[in-house]
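Researcher: Batch entry, complex prediction.
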Amino acid sequence: MTTVSAAPPADARDAASTSAAAARRSDVRSRWLLAAPALALIFVGAVGPLAIVLVYSFLAPGDYSGVVWTLSGDAWFNVFLERDIFDDTVGPSWAHLSIFWRSVSLSLATTVLALLIGFPIAYFVATREPRWRSVWLFAITIPFWTNLLIRTFAIMELVRNEGVINTILMATGLVSAPIQMLYTDFAVMLGMLYVYLPLMVLPIYASLERLDFRLVEAAYDLYAGRLQVLRWVILPLTKPGIVAGSILVFIPSLGAYVTPRVLGGGKNLMLGNLIELQFSQGRNWPLGAALAMTLMAIVTVALLVYLRVAAGTRSSAHG
Amino acid sequence: MTEDRDARGLDIRRVGKVFAQAGKADFRALDDVSLSIRSNEFFTLLGPSGCGKTTLLRMIAGFEHPSEGQILLGGQDIGTLPPFARPVNTVFQNYALFPHLTVAGNIAFGLEMLRVPRAEIDETVGRMLRLVRMEAMRSRRPSEISGGQQQRVALARALAPHPKILLLDEPLSALDLKLRKEMQIELKRLQSETGITFVFVTHDQEEALTMSDRIAVMSEGKVLQVGSPHDIYDRPANRFVASFIGETNFLEGAVESVTPAGAAVRLAGGALIVAGAPSGGLPSGRTTVVIRPEHIDLVAAGGPATLTAKVEASVYFGTDTHHHLRLADGAPFVVRRQSRRQEGGEFPVGAEVGVVIPDLAAQVLGD
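Model: Structure tokens for the complex:
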């Protein structure tokens, strides 16, 4: 076949290559043009506000609110450290650090519990007949139709001292006095778990639904018991869904505002509440901005670590 | 089925399977199936789709449990054991290779689940890779190798734990013709090298004939005939087996007498032929004889012939020519003759020809 076509003359080749380069240039230009609306939106909606927050965090607070345009590192200093009002010594800001710790640990616990509860739910739905799957998925997404505040108050109704859980426990005689659950970390976590569980279930369902269950049969055939099939076949193959679901639960949990506010009362603050406080009663916008940037840094670091770990287990399995 | 039972073989005793269907009558996939598969045998379950062959295979594997009857392996009833507790491995129709593992990881999977020591696993994986000639691909993922290579990995993965029985569920159906022919030879080689019993499911009669030691022909949940490829092809037990395997002519007639050499059959047209008798005893009265198209000869009209017919069409295949005839009583009849170079126009369309049926070319059907 190739013997028939001779190489084209050199100048023809050059002409062809220059016109190809021109075509490539105009191709690149049209791509940028096509992407321009999206890029503009990203700039206006994400990069711009972030830049404002970053700049504000290096300014001084105004007397009543807002900022004074003088460069200051006080906000960042106050995020992590505090000056003792009596002897002027500098020490770590335990109040802030405990709120960071509570935010991270509650978000982690919420994510792990959501995974432990969400995976079996997703598995159950994915193994139903196709026409039932949509019914179940519909049922799972119903809570999204209700206002977040109302859903949170519903949880409050469950856990408060005169609430459903305590009433039942008292009626059955299991406890003599109501268990204090409202305004504890437990209540905050329960609320976040309830609110974010569908965000765990849906991506895991999506990856389970794509899973070829003939692979499960193949594993059974190759002497794998139920747990081994789960460990060595189902979990590795649904990892993208597990990673996505964990991220979707962890990030909003870390910045949760309404749930800790309602269920945690005044004392169990999370980062979201602390930030809100600086912009309202605290009248310290730069500190709020610095805290918001810190939250973002925590999320970014957590994501990088998580993705590194998730990718690492894949490449090391079975060399 | 009165064949000698092999103590180490697979014994399927009066197995039946009924599937309950929501809102419909129960579906009987298998009905009173009995088979004895010897160890080291290449045994094929052959039949059209829906005949129950895959259900039977899945039952041997443990994915389905029999509604009735027993499945004995080496004398032990395995019918109720889960798949992971049976020394039986499967090569799946779609291969079902684990996409997240390498070729070597796939082959090692069964041994890892059996908690075989690492050194032994590595040694076996190396041997399996050599056996299926995939050493160079050991670190690739299934998505990075061709269909034929995936097929070989699936084979190696199922052979690695050295099962007593290897089940193959139409493993060649996804391959193109040339690759399929190569894999047929490869499978035969693997079977003789490993000495493992192969139970092979296919709907391809040619595949069954070329590869099997013995074949069970199935239809509608029943086993119709078990025998060597020669038995099945030359001495089909009934009309279904005869028509499912190869091209066949059917002629009506009546058995006149039986000699040790065969049965004398008076055909409907008046001619007398000597045909093979079925092993299960001769039916009395009207009977059907089958004749393979390649066992018949044609002569010019007026020659010494058993039947006369008219040529309706001739199809040239290179190696041979198929002559489609119409008999005097209107029945269609096919004759296949090997092509000869000097030939041409000997039996033109529309010509009257004589059909010669040699002694024992035909077989009397059992039913």
